[in-house]
Design a protein that fits this description.
The protein is an alpha/beta fold and 311 residues long. The protein has twelve helices and nine strands. α7 links the parallel β3 and β4. The radius of gyration is 23 Å and the shape is elongated.
Amino acid sequence: MSDAAPETWTILKILRWTADYFREKGVSEPRASAEVLLAQVLGLSRLDLYLRYDQPLTTDELSRFKALMLRRLQGEPVAYLIGYKEFWSLDFQVAPGVLIPRPETEILVAAALEAAREIMEAEAPNFPKSENRKPITSPLWGLELGVGSGAVVVSLAKELPRLTWLALDLSAPALAVSRQNARRHGVAERLVFIQCDLLAALKPRPAFALLVANLPYVSRREWEQLPRDIKDFEPPQALLGGEDGLELIRELTRQAHQYLRPGGCLALEMGAGQAEKVLELLQQTGAYESLETLADYQGIPRVVRARRFSA
């Protein structure tokens, strides 16, 4: 009597089984996790998985998928497992030790883009009457604090070719990844990376048209309640903002206006419930002519935007 034929696992069959198993074990986003990991193993898009739903997997493909599945069961984030995360319709390399970009941070990019375009429009030179003469424009510099993977500053550099950027972070691994992403997306020549703590490497002078920051803002209490995917795998120093979550933000609000040109703009991401306090901190400086908040996709005030008094 011959041995029974080995079970055939098609794309659709293993997706359904894995999603159900992830759900049973409490894995967050079980279906999406299964899709992304299988697409990575097969070199397909998530849409292709369903277009090829009856395609059988080879023994090697099953083995590689199982290895990723087991790591996901331990809580390891999908972005670390596949090595990248989509942000602002771009793929960004990520690695353990570097914060994974969040969808809500796209609100920070959108807020900074709007402000930068208003600044550039206001500073647009008058074209001379002679067609033989070129208009002269002063260079515009942007500054980002806490660049992490580089998702924010690289996205802004892609959208704003007139700006050159100074990108600061305390983490050497984060700066290494952000440099890779700058090269990957063709903007490295307009980005200068410096390792430092907040603004410690810079003299306070009004040099920047735009200052963007996504600093750690998770409070100690919130940290203790974070899911395992975040708490056990992502870098605490990129998330923890002291007891109330505002330790670094409080320090930045005291200094930011000293680095902004007249009419320049500060765009700052913050956590849920922090908007009122951040606005108060900025108002206390007396340096801004306008302050506003922008909500994320859930209606939570996520970004504060402040415009420096014009000269």
